[in-house]
Amino acid sequence: MPETVTVLGIETSCDETAAAVVRRRLDGEAEIISNIVASQMEVHAPYGGVVPEIAARAHVELIDDVILRALADAKCGLQEVDAIAATAGPGLNGGLMVGLTAAKAVASAASKPFYAINHLEGHALTARLTNGLAFPFVLLLVSGGHTQILLVEGVGAYRRMGTTIDDALGEAFDKTAKLLGLAYPGGPAVEAAARSHSMGADITLPTPMVGRPGFDFSFSGLKTAVRQTAQSLADQNDGLSQDAVAAICHGFQRSICRVLTDRVGRALDDVAGTFERQLPLVIAGGVAANQTIRHALETLVADRRSHLIAPPMALCTDNAAMIAWAALERMEAGFTPDGFDFAPKPRWPLDASTAPKIGYGKRGAKA
Ligand code: KG4
Ligand code: ZN
Predict the structure, then answer these.
(1) What 3-state DSSP class applies to 129?
(2) Is the CB of residue 121 below 6 angstroms from any atom belonging to ligand 1?
(3) How far is the CA of 108 from the centre of ligand 2 (A)?
(4) Contact, 90 vs 347, CB < 8 A?
(5) What span, in angstroms and rounded, lies between the C-alpha atoms of 336 and 269?
(6) 318 class by beta-carbon count within 10 Å (0-12 exposed, 13-18 middle, 19+ buried)
(7) How far is it, in rounded angstroms, from Cα 315 to Cα 284?
(8) pLDDT tens across 39-50, in order?
(9) Residue 187 CA: which ligand is closest?
(10) Contact at 8 Å (CB) between 296 and 303?
(11) Does the N terminus or the C terminus of the chain have fewer Cβ atoms within 10 A?
(12) Global pTM value
């Protein structure tokens, strides 16, 4: 193992085409040397969500330039890179194929080892890149595609404690926004509308799963309640006023905060029993941008004399620095590189115990 380790990472699992160079320096510090993210948000906005075929085509158009920009920004030639990594799943098959093919081609041409990375592992390990956080910790991952509570005990040692049984939380925000005629992506629009709520009475919406055993989530009932409330307010008042939209968004966010603090609180208490101390809580994913949610979680951990770690927003949402970092952590932990025959895995649970046992080894899933 060289004294510094430098990894080029590539991420194409959803609607961002991203490449980054991350280094472990001689002094042991981790450093993001470049971090390029080309967002396709505008391409998908007219459809109110990500269109897989359009995403795949956009990745093909952007990927070469994004990789070259990441290397140029890092002032780094391929000969200085120790490994190439790409997201292999979970995500949209077409996009995964583009990133994986590019990474394998670069690794093959430059004779460098190749690592196929689980996107969720990237999110799970980010707080170690940004904050040098020690294992173990609890991760709340809340994005457009995922809603999970994970116990992170080491590189490759993840236990999924809870997940959504229907919609992801970001998806619930996006669908709520669409129902109320707000812009895409819905999260920021719902948050802004909720902040403007001051007129009239508060609206109380359901809080699915609160008080139930376990740590799972469900958001589809809340979405239905939003639709019914909006419909009845519109019927009563001959249309949905801005004040009514603000009141619904406020009520929606309040329900979400109740659900999150209940589920995450239970998870924190559960692991505190096992470890005989409170573990830190990390939040990641696009929904982590929501200030009301952050505040609720801060209060939750403060009550437990623990602390909340929220990596900078650019590293909470999808990026390639987290993919390069996950590969770097795997190299340092002694994991062997992956073969060029590694195929995309649109479904790839991080926690092997929640996945089919056939084809899984000690070090996780095999292609
Ligand atoms: O992690 P991300 O950028 O992309 C993936 O889904 O992988 O997350 C995007 C999601 C969208 O559903 C968006 O509506 C939501 O994060 N989001 C928010 C906020 N900003 C983005 N949700 C609530 N409040 C926000 N301020
Ligand atoms: Zn993500």
Answers:
(1) helix
(2) no
(3) 27
(4) yes
(5) 36
(6) buried
(7) 8
(8) 888 888 888 778
(9) 1
(10) no
(11) N
(12) 0.91
